[in-house]
């Protein structure tokens, strides 16, 4: 284990980086955006499955790489959309297959995260290979069965201060309610994600609206009642601790519809009779509406733009979404966000955190926008860019124009619960090394760097997401 | 003060960088493009206002960042477009507010420039903070009132060899005439910027044309007289020392219109009856016409493309242009410039210097174009990219394909007069460090590097802009 | 000569880089894609011309830079498209002109390649300048006349294991046949490049089809016979050792036509009556068809997308193609490739190697695509990006998402035969330095790095292009 890992080899810079990292390595983890299943923590008797259930099957970073080299998802016992695993689910064999191909991950964040997880969480300091695959499997299995690996025990060991999940607008948040009622002290909060009730061109849209009516107690029969139902859900989420909403879209396109236009489109949507252009306009309009609601109820608004979901048609038909086949597209914010910013960009009461998958927008559009509009913050590098190079490019392209105080700090955005500490560790080390470079070049002084590392590692996320008490 | 600031910490590289920088640090400054008000230098009795008048109110880099964090322009006593400053203009309070928030600029060029200005020009070596804000204000005020801080005294202390201003085509250049007549030796030259008489869709276009008629003495009543009036203005600018023109456009779109088409659009423009497409075509056509005129009169042509001006509508309505709300857009040159290049790209008599705000075009389009067409040169990194990382990306993306001899050296492009030395200093240090990296990696030898640093710091700008005597 | 050239100056990294490079510096060269004329090697009595014939006239990297600085192609005795060299071809004078302007190439790959060629192949260790131009010319001339500089002798000295040429679909491959029959052991293989018979909007398309009928022995009179003729040619190329095809297109646009649509367009093409949209659709369709054929016959498919060919109209009219006036354009793969990937992206039997000239697609589209689809591999940085910075950006943007095992290793893609070793040397050094950075930062360990350097320098190219025996 290399205590100076990810730092520059240059001795002067490395020394500064180490000092900065030491300052924050033990700070609690702020996890304001991610996809951990709240059930893990709500159930005091939750049992992990096998190491493959934990580390392979839910992790599309892992199986997309294996798939790219010709290993079928069936071989990895990934369930199809009907829940069928075609091959007999022999997880020992799957684990062996993964370990036999572990060289594919050389130089990737996945290899870093798993190495850190095995060592720091499971106490396994061996390098994965074909020969030790089964003994590592045994070691992992043994640990997972023990009480100290229960999700709540890990939550404390990980030193998580707050963990936000991501939940559909129609969720009853039953696990969050159970958590609250359990008396356990861990702070787990929901996040309001209304995509399914906003994307009017999805095949089951009528069912989504029916469900929205049920959970909100408001019969959604027109645009006005639809808005009321959404506001009800936001209030409900807030009552269970939510401080943020989250919105996904192919682009950042926004557009203000008149009430008449919005009503007309929504009526077509209720009848299942919408065009792609209807859907585009309605999503663009609802982003502006959601910004308005955020100003009213104080929920931080997140926008994740740029992913072409389910690009691999036949794979999607067989296995469903989140199979590693979402591909980024070119992004545009300057024109697309203008209607929203014209409406609410100057509002200090709005915090809109932008995420995207086209790094060219960092220096060209996002940093200039965030360095001007009071409402905007930039989310950390997302998804494929949650990596050492991704972070360096983010810092190098964003900070000169927007500073660090128009960024939102870090979030791990993971569904892989045990990888949370490793992901924050990479961010903290990358931040320390980047700051150290600026110190040794005389761009900032050490005093400022010691402030900035705490901001980057802890304070910015907490403050941006209104997680209290700074 | 760190004599090796901005250089790599690696000792071998740092040593080479320092030697290269030492070679050019005392060379005169060539300032072929910028926005300094010629009045400063024309008036031998010019009096600076307060430190806020000097350092905050004219600097959109500064107030855009403060604005992004919720500080209103009114609080900074920025005048509205009607010239009204809403709050009582208490500049001591403004200065305190800026200093209280100076942490926002950590890691930005603004923080570097101001630190250098305070130290090198005003002799203030303290780091700005809330506590010392008022004493720094006092020190600045005292200096600004003294003779040695008159703009002409600073011009000499800055060691400026030549300073170009940027002036509307309809300007009478009265301050430039006054400068010439004053007998003062400083070389201040105008630059011909015809945007206001080329952008036919601006609301006051008729007034612009009326003014053009007046100052040129040519009654502009059709396309032919319009061209004649523009040629007259160029000749007039040239007679007062101009060596260049400057053109701003949202994109680099060019298009050759027939005389009939040009005339028809121009007649509609005179009647105030043009479409957006008319305006786009006419601008695209006039860029080609301006290139033709440049071949004839020898004026270097500059094109600044890619800024979405006045993006924040409500701010624009209240405060007018140049309020830090101009946002870059994606750029395209390969197709857009083709009509112009088909006409004049092979002409050695044309020098067209390209600036843009989309760094992705550097390696993809601009360097390949400039590395082929005799007429093209690449301007230095512009605006948000006038920064250490911006310069490094420029060098790394441009030089392998275009070399340094298809670049135009540096220009500071500033309206912040006292920041000129700091900006050139950053460029010279960044150039030295970049060259040093190439020396220690054995890509170029020290002999070449010592030639190149002088080219980058001094000769290329002088030669590109035909500023004489190399 | 700097044994550590191109490596980081940081001592720890440099030491690792050197060790990695030492491991591969003597490995044979795998050259699976390039444009060397097979005649050089087929003719046992081949005579080089002058140094200018060898090093200047065929190298558009060299003369595009000279042209950009106002040196006419006529001055360089580049032949016009009619084969006329306008000025008297005094190659000594041309060489002097090149050397007088050699400073233009400072910091470019061309300067690195030529320096290496002169030193390592011709034993000339002087830096080119005006004074030594003629003596270097003499030395080069002398060497070129000697037997040890015959292309076959150089082939052995270069330690080339296999060299692929690029050949039109209608080629009879006479030089490849001659090579096979000559008994010489060098492995020279053709590559099937069908662009001229696929691009239906070229003026001489009827002649191309006539030629296709002749060489295939299949009368091409409809879409079906056209496909049959193409399949016949592929089989013929394969019989002479081809393992790959190559396809150039302005974009990566693909589109599945019905047989009826394909037939209708093809019939219009035979009549010379096609629209630009016809051509675009047909090319997009044929890329899918070629993927199908690749699955059937096993030929690796290469796609080079993104070059706006012959951008300089007047130069093209006078001198023809490949005059340094091809300019990159913005690229898009996520949507453009989807029809092809929907059809064959999940096929392990297909290897589609993607090349492009828009580096922004590396991290945004290409790495995410290649890190998922079994059929995809990423070609090395192409053309303007076959450079130290180009390679570094490629690694930094691709590997975190796609790993190195979804890349295709290196190919030199050159028509400048004597530059082959220099180009591979740059790649091997750049790879070693990039890996060394990862080792000293603790991202990968030395054991993995020693595997990866051999993969990057040798194995990946050999395996991707099915060149046998790993």
UniProtKB/TrEMBL annotation, chains A, B, C:
Q: What is its EC number?
A: 5.3.1.12
What pathway is it annotated to?
A: Carbohydrate metabolism; pentose and glucuronate interconversion
UniProt-recorded name of the protein: Uronate isomerase
Q: Which UniProt keywords apply?
A: Isomerase
Biological source species: Ktedonospora formicarum
- Reactions it catalyzes: D-glucuronate = D-fructuronate
Q: Name one GO biological process term.
A: D-glucuronate catabolic process
What does the record give under GO molecular function?
A: glucuronate isomerase activity
Q: Which SUPFAM superfamilies match?
A: Metallo-dependent hydrolases
InterPro entries cross-referenced by the UniProt entry: Metal_Hydrolase (IPR032466), Uronate_isomerase (IPR003766)
The entry sums up its family as follows: Belongs to the metallo-dependent hydrolases superfamily. Uronate isomerase family.
What would be one Pfam family of this protein?
UxaC
The lineage's top-level taxon is Bacteria
**NCBIfam families linked:** PRK02925.1
Q: What residue intervals traverse the membrane?
A: none
């Amino acid at each position: 284990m290399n205590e100076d890992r990810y730092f520059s080899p240059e001795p002067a810079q490395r020394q500064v980086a180490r000092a900065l990292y030491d300052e924050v390595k033990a700070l609690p983890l702020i996890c304001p955006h991610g996809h951990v299943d709240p059930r893990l923590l709500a159930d005091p008797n939750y049992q992990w499955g096998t190491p493959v259930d934990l580390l392979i099957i839910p992790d599309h970073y892992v199986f997309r790489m294996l798939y790219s080299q010709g290993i079928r998802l069936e071989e990895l016992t990934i369930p199809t959309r009907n829940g069928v695993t075609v091959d007999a689910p022999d997880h020992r064999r799957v684990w062996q297959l993964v370990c036999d191909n572990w060289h594919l991950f050389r130089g990737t964040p996945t290899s870093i995260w798993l190495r850190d997880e095995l060592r720091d969480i499971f106490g396994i300091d061996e390098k994965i290979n074909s020969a030790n695959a089964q003994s590592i499997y045994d070691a992992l299995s043994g640990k997972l069965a023990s009480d100290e690996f229960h999700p709540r025990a890990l939550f404390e060991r990980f030193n998580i201060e707050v963990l936000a999940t991501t939940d559909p607008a129609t969720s009853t948040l039953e696990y969050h309610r159970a958590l609250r009622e359990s008396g356990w002290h861990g702070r787990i909060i929901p996040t309001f994600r209304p995509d399914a009730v906003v994307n009017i061109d999805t095949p089951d849209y009528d069912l989504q609206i029916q469900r929205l009516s049920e959970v909100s107690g408001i019969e959604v029969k027109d645009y006005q009642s639809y808005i009321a139902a959404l506001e009800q859900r936001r209030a409900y989420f807030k009552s269970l601790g939510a401080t943020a909403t989250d919105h996904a879209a192919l682009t950042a396109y926004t557009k203000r519809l008149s009430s008449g236009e919005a009503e007309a489109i929504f009526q077509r949507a209720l009848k299942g009779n919408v065009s792609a252009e209807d859907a585009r306009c309605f999503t663009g309009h609802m982003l502006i509406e959601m910004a308005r609601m955020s100003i009213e109820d104080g929920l931080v608004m997140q926008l994740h733009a740029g992913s072409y979901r389910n690009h691999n048609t036949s794979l999607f038909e067989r296995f469903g979404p989140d199979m590693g086949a979402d591909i980024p597209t070119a992004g545009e914010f300057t024109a697309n966000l203008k209607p929203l910013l014209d409406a609410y960009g100057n509002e200090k009461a709005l915090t809109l955190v932008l995420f995207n998958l086209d790094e060219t927008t960092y220096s060209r559009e996002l940093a200039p926008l965030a360095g001007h509009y009071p409402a905007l913050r930039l989310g950390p590098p997302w998804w494929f860019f949650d990596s050492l190079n991704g972070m360096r490019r983010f810092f190098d392209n964003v900070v000169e124009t927007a500073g660090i105080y128009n960024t939102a700090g870090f979030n791990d955005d993971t569904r892989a619960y045990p990888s949370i500490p490793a992901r924050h560790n990479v961010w903290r080390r990358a931040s320390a090394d980047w700051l150290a470079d600026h110190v040794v070049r005389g761009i900032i002084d050490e005093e400022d760097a010691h402030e900035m590392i705490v901001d980057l590692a802890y304070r910015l996320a907490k403050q941006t997401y209104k997680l209290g008490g700074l």
